[in-house]
Write a structure and sequence with these properties.
This protein is 36% helix and 23% strand. It is built from 10 helices and 13 strands. The protein has a 7-stranded mixed beta sheet with strand order 8-11-7-12-9-13-10, sandwiched between helices. Strands 1-2-3-6-4-5 form a 6-stranded mixed beta sheet, covered by helices on one side. A hairpin with a 5-residue loop joins strand 2 and strand 3 (32-40). The radius of gyration is 19 Å and the shape is globular. The relative contact order is 0.17. One cobalt (II) ion (CO) binds next to loops.
């Protein structure tokens, strides 16, 4: 995208240049469309569960902009000579489960032949153009809240190597199928303006992009960041997705690692699928926002704060 001439139109409120979760198009003063597409390779063996994860992951980009999903189209890559169509039906049913829970419609889609299966959704949602959550909206002095624990990258890597325990798989699954709908509503209620969901670039990668776009920095209190069970052990045993190291390389000189161990830093960059929302809330309201997240079932925490050091992330 960087090599394309950026599209500029007064109604394109959020486009590609800020690396945001979705594009936002103004329809009128009170309504905007939120448009996104996301698809993934299988992360778990159960096809229905994979459909659920892929759908929750795709729709999350609408929530990350402060929007609500309206309708979606299935995006399918399928190896039809090797995989039965019954399995594909299960994947689509998984997406349907999420659509029903979130209250949006799946209204069609497209399938191509693909040696490696892929599944996801193109989603159209709506948002209030005056109340968007963007990468560029984080402000100095705010507290940073994260609505889900990290570690699904490590656990899904261990699943591919048949070394994840049932407990770890269960915890990762529950986390990945959980919608970011309520977290998004809580962020808006407590007047967040900056947010992103934590997916492939990991916490550090997504935060790195957000502080760049917001022209601020971030301090993370590493002991406040929550992890799924067994994440530490699995990471120490080497089950680290390749993406996590690339996420750290991308941050280059902008990360102050403090006294954080190498594994600790890698875990903060762990590439997530269907991760939580990361958003900034004014200091005075941050605890109330956290209380609402926790009482609505989120494993959330205040992981740090927004500081006045443009583009930098400091670990403490
Ligand atoms: Co996203
Ligand atoms: Co995405």
């Amino acid at each position: 995208m960087r090599r394309l001439t950026p599209t500029s139109n007064p109604d394109l409120l959020v486009g590609a240049v800020t690396g945001d979760d979705a594009a936002v198009w103004r329809l009128d003063n009170n309504r905007a469309l939120v448009v996104t597409a996301d698809f993934i390779t299988p992360v778990v063996d159960d096809p229905r569960a994979w459909g659920q994860v892929a759908a929750a992951n795709a729709v999350s980009d609408v929530y990350a902009m402060g929007g609500k999903p309206l309708l979606a189209l299935n995006l399918v890559g399928w190896n039809s000579s090797e995989l039965p169509t019954d399995l594909l039906s299960e994947v689509l049913l998984g997406a349907q489960d999420i659509a029903e829970q979130a209250g949006f419609a799946i209204a069609g889609g497209h399938t191509v032949d693909d040696p490696e299966p892929k599944f996801g959704l193109a989603v159209v949602g709506e948002a209030d153009p005056e109340n968007l959550l963007t990468n560029a909206g984080f402000k100095v002095g705010q507290k940073l809240l994260l609505s889900k624990p990290l570690g699904v990258g490590v656990i899904t890597t261990a699943i591919k190597n048949d070394t994840a325990s049932t407990e770890a798989i269960q915890a990762a699954m529950e986390s990945m199928v959980a919608l970011n709908e309520e977290a998004s509503q809580i962020a808006l209620k407590f007047e967040a303006t900056g947010a992103t969901d934590v997916t492939g670039f990991g916490l550090l990668g997504h935060l790195g992009r957000a502080v760049e776009e917001s022209k601020v920095g971030a301090q993370i209190n590493t002991e406040e960041v929550l992890f799924l069970p067994e994440t530490q052990e699995l990471a120490e045993a080497g089950f680290v997705p390749g993406g996590s190291r690339r996420n750290l390389e991308w941050l280059d000189g902008r990360l102050d690692k403090g006294n954080c161990s190498e594994t600790g830093v890698l875990l903060l960059a762990d590439a997530q699928t269907s991760g939580g929302l990361l958003f900034g809330i004014d200091d005075s309201k941050a605890q109330d926002a956290l209380d609402e997240l926790v009482s609505s079932g989120h494993s959330a925490s205040i992981i740090g704060s927004v500081i006045d050091e443009e583009g930098k992330i400091v670990l403490r």
